[in-house]
Amino acid sequence: MTDLFKPRIGVARLAAALGAMVLSTTLVAAHAAETYPKAVQQAVDAGVKVVTSFPAASGMTGWVLSQDGRHSIVYTTADKKTLVVGALVGEDGHSLTSQYEERYVPKPDLAAFFPDLEKSSYVMEGVTKDPKNVLYVFVDPNCPFCHFTWMALQPYEKAGLQVRWIPVATLGPTSMPKAIEVMAAKDKTVAFRKMEENHGKNWVPSPSSSEASNQAVAAQIRANGELMERFGIAGTPGVVWKDRQGKVNVKGGMPRLSELPAITGLPEQKIDDPALAKFR
Known about the structure:
By secondary structure, the chain is of the alpha+beta class. It has helices spanning about 15-20, 40-45, 95-105, 110-120, 145-160, 175-185, 190-195, 215-230, 260-265; strands spanning about 20-25, 50-55, 60-65, 70-75, 80-85, 125, 135-140, 160-165, 240, 250.
């Protein structure tokens, strides 16, 4: 399978949407027996399986593709002449791709992957001893919705939650060095909090935050990204937790504030930051 149809992690955010690949294909007259648009048919002929199709935004059709157990979503325009690969973001700024992924992509065996999650490279925040619950969150240093998720979970951390932030690098060339700077720090938690508190501000990488200087740390971050794919999470943030019955759950994208009590297993906490009002 070509890179075009491989799962794309981190594309469910606006920054990735702006850089998403759009391929235009001029179609010749279709044969009567052809089931799919030509560009999709080419993938099928190469061994990719079409799992399902569905009506997508703006008159497009979404296609869930699968190969070697990996899934991805692509889109064809209404005239079937253009194939769109990447994230769709609605006018409200929320990821349509994450919604489609949640609804149409077959769910992986989450319980089988959970031990790998527990052994992943992460930053721990919140209660360190006897937490009331533990949350795992895949986070990209450049992801604004990850930052909002961090803000929203702060009151829950104070109420007894432990959050294990799993850095990935999916949203541009500075994501990896920023993640390395955190994961190579002597105190990862302090470095992570500093990164979040300075989110959106100018950042100058130090020589020590390059992949060449920290190959082992960079490999851990790439492994985190691969683990995020195995959980079927299309973009950051990606939240993983066990409920009181022990079932593993996944939430792709920024949770609504009203969802946090169920996700954290804690009583609703007061969140009055005006920056989070749109997520109520």
